[in-house]
Amino acid sequence: MSADKWANPEKMWDERFSQPEPVYGEMPNLFLEEQAKGWKPGARVLVPGDGYGRNGIWLARQGFRVHTVDLSPVGVERSRKTAFSAGLNMAIECADLAKWQWPVAEFEVVASIFVHLPPSVRPQVHGSMLRVLKPGGVLILEAFSPEQLRYTSGGPKQLDLLHTAEILRKDFIGAEVVELVEAVVELREGALHSGLGAVIRGAFRSR
C-alpha cells in the first residue's frame, strides 16, 4: 500500500473492505483470542477500528457485550450485515476515532488491534481509550513496530504510524503496564496480514 493512500484513510479502507474476500480473514486476532480467556464473562468490550467486524463479531459470539467503531462506512455496513445474519446483539458505529464522542468509564475492556493513527491524533485517541475504561478495566493492544518495515506481511510503511514501547508508555501514562513486549510472530490474518511480522503487544490496566 503506497503512502499516498494513507493520506485518505476512509477511501483506502472502503476499497479494502469492499473486496469480496475478507482481506484480514474471518478468524479473530490471536493475541485478542488469548487475552479474552481471562475476561469476566459478559464484560462490556469496546473495539475501535474494527473494520468489517472480525474481532468484534467473534467477541460477541463468546458472550461479551460488544461496541465497535470504525471509520469506513463500507466496513461498518459489512459488519452490521454479518452480525444481523448471526443474530448477534451488538453496537456497530461509523465514526472517525479522532472526532468520536468517547464515553467515560463505561467499559471493562478496550481491544485495539492494528489501529495505526498519525501522531497528530494518536495520543488523544489513546488517552480516550483509557478514559472509557472503568477503574480496573483493561486495554489490550497489538500493533506493528518499526521493525515491521523489514517484513512484507502488511501494515503501514510510514515510520510515524508504527508503535514502540516508549510511545505506548507515554500515551498510556497513569495506567498500570501489565504486559508490553515486542516480538516477531507468524501472522495468519487473511491475504493482507500473512507471514512473519514485527509487532508490539500491550496490556494496560486502568487505575
Q: Could you outline the blueprint of secondary structure elements for this entry?
A:
Blueprint: H1 9-17, H2 30-36, E1 44-48, H3 54-61, E2 65-70, H4 73-85, E3 91-94, E4 107-113, H5 122-131, E5 133-144, H6 165-171, E6 176-188, E7 194-205
Parallel strand pairs: 1-2, 1-4, 2-3, 4-5
Antiparallel strand pairs: 5-7, 6-7
Helix pairs in contact: 1-4
Write up this protein:
There is one protein chain. The protein is α/β, with parallel strands linked by helices and 207 residues long. The protein has a single domain (3-205), classed as Rossmann fold. The protein is built from six helices and seven strands. The protein has helices at residues 9-17, 30-36, 54-61, 73-85, 122-131, 165-171; strands at 44-48, 65-70, 91-94, 107-113, 133-144, 176-188, 194-205. Helix 1 runs parallel beside helix 4 (73-85). The N and C termini lie far apart (39 Å). The mean pLDDT is 95.
